[in-house]
Amino acid sequence: MSRNITYSHHALRVLEFERVREIVATLADSAEGKAALSGMFPVADGDRARHLLAEAGEAMNARRFDDPPPGLAFHDIRELFPLLRVEGIRLEIEAIAAIAANLAIARDARHYYTFRKDKYPRLAGIVSLIVPQENIESRVQRTILPDLTIADDATPALRSIRRSLERARADLRGLVDRTLAGLPDDVVSDRVVTVRDGRYVIPVRDNMKGRVPGAVHDRSQTGRTFFIEPLASIEGNNRVRELEMAEQEEISRILLELTAMISAAAESIILNQDILARLDVISAKARYGVRSEGVVPRINDSPVFRIRKGRHPLLDWKFRKRADGSSVVPMDLSMGGDGVTTIVVTGPNAGGKTVALKTVGLMTALALCGIPVPAEEGTELFVPTGIFADIGDEQSIEDDLSTFSSHMKQIVIILREAERGALVLLDELGGGTNPSDGEAIALAVLRRLTSVRALTLATTHHGGLKVFAHETEGVLNASMEFDQENLRPTFTLRTGVPGSSYAFEIAKRMGMPVEVLADAEALAGGERKSLESLILEMEQRLRQADEERRAAEYQRVIMEAERRKYEKKLEEFTTRRQEMLGAAIAESKRVMETANRSIETAIRTIREQQASREAIAEAKAEVVRAAEVIEEKARELPAKDAPVERKPAGELRPGLRVRVESMNADGVVEQVLDGGRRARVLIGKSKASLVVSSADLSAAQTPEKDRQTVRVTAASADVESREIDLRGMTFEDARDELELFLDRMQRSGLDTARIIHGKGTGALRSKLGAWLDRHPMVESRRLGEWNEGGAGVTVVVLRK
């Protein structure tokens, strides 16, 4: 799907998208990658967004589960590209070395992803376009040393020149040293041979320069010393200079030759550079995804989004750098799929309403840039027809606009441009003016946006908008939870219930005089107090429902664990039964074969000896012995139970004890279904609930009155250890073991547990942490302290 859409720069600015973009840019290895990410902008093409996210997802998997990908700190050589097309150009050593280094990086990247093309097909497809230039690499490597000098063995000519130059310099130095040694102290100012203009000279006092025949090359700053090239060394100096020029000419020829090789491969080098920049952008996105413990969201073409445990990208990144262990409260929110297109978010100030709006907007923008989002699996976002936001104090002194006027300016733009499928984020809608007027405008704006089916999130303090959300189809109330006992926000978003501002409660906590507070409540009026009381009652009922849901979830988890345990034991029993049956059949065949051989031998003996009395007696004895062997083997087999007569279950009713024949187990009817053709039966100690056919049911073998009930109270001594070691396990196996362990801990009255999962890649720790956060038994969790195992251990506090 491709649409000609440009997202609002104003919306992205107030969402602080640039700040998140810069965070991702800092994770790039190269200057080109950083520049590309700094200019990144959300795309309005669903297929393109899905493609970009899939690339980032593969790179995330490579970082999480594979050998580290090669680094991409390549040189910025784009300014050299125009020069490569100039005939006869000669690049400097630094430029040639940089190009060769980039070619090596490109080759390593190509090798890494091509070798793993089955795991990372998209990235392998990208690097398949890289054109290796190993001949250039190897030639440059042989020619240019790490210190950016030309190697002696670069060419035979250079090697010969440098050897001659080394001998000429040695001879010249010896000659000048001997000349200096022969001069008296009053002639020379220092007994050190120096170099001026590339020639060896002697420092001579200014009043003694006539004592040393030769050429003056320099004079000291004080004027008291002349640097003279002795006459005897002029020819040697000339020879050294000639060889130095020959060396430079050969180096220039070598560089021209290397430049020609590079120019011939210019198109491939430019293409490789483009691919490296693209890989670096993908790599930086993947780094962000891994470090933020993010996921690749699904991108919907229709206006539907579902955020699971989403965290505000900027706040999440900030808290990850803090050492106090604090973190962002995750948010669950969905819109569009159930017909809801407008959500009105209410609640106290500083409770997280604006953060919730920005989280939705930033996650959408990041996903449309192909960047993983800080959330959990199952998160879905969409491609809006426009992104609009009116957030924060938009007051402008320069444009002579008040806060209200600035907000109205943006809302007018939104009403004019927002259409079906747009994402609209409105903060403190209707604020900044007379409350009754502001509420009326806010209601009209929401009605308009709801009618065009733009997905709209609006925060407000106006009570009328809560009523509007309750009474209008397609509009939903939501609120930020507030801890009434401690009078502070929990930053948890709840849908389906409006929130209170808690203004009086907060004022009381801040120390407002009682008489002033009472006067304020009286002025507020009874109608408002009734609405606030209704909201409080709804919040209490919601908390009660949450507790009941957690309890039900707890029972479901326990039952599921018991079911898996039973299925495993049933599988083991079936396997063992088949093994025993096979062994019994094999043993029976062997016994019968032995008996048959004995009988055949006896018959053959009777025939051969013509049925003499002795032969007949011996044959009978042999047959008897064979029969005794069979009987002995039969006695070794376990005694078979007498068949139990199956009695009909009778008329099914809740509470009736029955026998489930297919499972060979007794149970109790919980519910009769389909007019008695099926029933839900609770089976075993764990009360696993199964639906079975009535034909599979019979009367229970053990009457209820014959059953003994033994009540056991578990004590802490029943638990061998408060610690469980899950290292080396898959998440599924670790989850099952941990479920049973936590159940034993809670039944034993213990409130803390130590879970060892190891450090490794952190994948098991991350998955177990997310699972523990949803577990009804778990009150809280934290990573171990330095003396408890650090990041390799999670300490869990259980609910009481």
Q: How would you describe the overall organization of this protein?
A:
With 800 residues, the protein is of the alpha/beta class. Helices cover 48% and strands 15% of the residues. It has 21 helices and 23 strands. It has a six-stranded mixed beta sheet, with helices on both faces. β11, α14 and β12 form a beta-alpha-beta unit. It is extended. Residues 395-400, 638-642 and 704-718 have low confidence and may be disordered.
Q: Which features characterize this protein?
A:
800 residues; six-stranded mixed sheet; alpha/beta; 23 strands
Round the Cα radius of gyration to an integer and report it.
43 Å
- Give the distance, in angstroms, between the N- and C-terminal Cα atoms: 53 Å
What overall geometry do the principal axes of the alpha carbons give? Answer: extended
The main sheet comes to: 6 strands, mixed
Helix % is 40-55%
What structural class results from the helix and strand content? alpha/beta
Determine the number of helices (DSSP H or I, runs of at least 4 residues). 21
**Major sheet: arrangement of strands:** 10-11-12-8-13-14
Count every beta strand, where a strand is a DSSP E run of 2 or more residues: 23
Low-pLDDT regions? 395-400, 638-642, 704-718
Share in β-strands: 15-25%
Mean pLDDT: 82
